[in-house]
Amino acid sequence: MTPAKEAAPKATETKKAPAKKAAAPKDEAKAAAPKAAPAAKKAAPAKAKPAKASNKPVRVAKAKTAAYKAAGGKMIKVRQVASPIGRTQDQRATLIGLGLNKLHRENELQDTPAVRGMIAKLQHLVKVVG
To answer: Which residues contact 104 (CB under 8 A, 6 or more apart)?
Structure first.
């Protein structure tokens, strides 16, 4: 009986050993797969934001303003004399386009047809100074 008792533990040992060896390659495959996935994410190009259309004024920087004046370009000075409260959204946007946002503020702009049109639209809110 002793040989049968010895044979039984050997059979269970042989069954367990191959199971452990088979489990090891699966773990290695799982460990290798997540490493490859982040690399693929990094390779994807970032989307660029589209440029927005701007309702900015025809204002120029101080250095450019001085050069424009020296070249003989005409400038126009505009002062805000009324509040935009209760006005339409396009009038508020035009006021910001002229570089004005508070009462009695002044801004010097190039004298162009576009600026003249903005002033005409807001003739009840702004005043041309000098």
So the answer is: 79, 80, 81
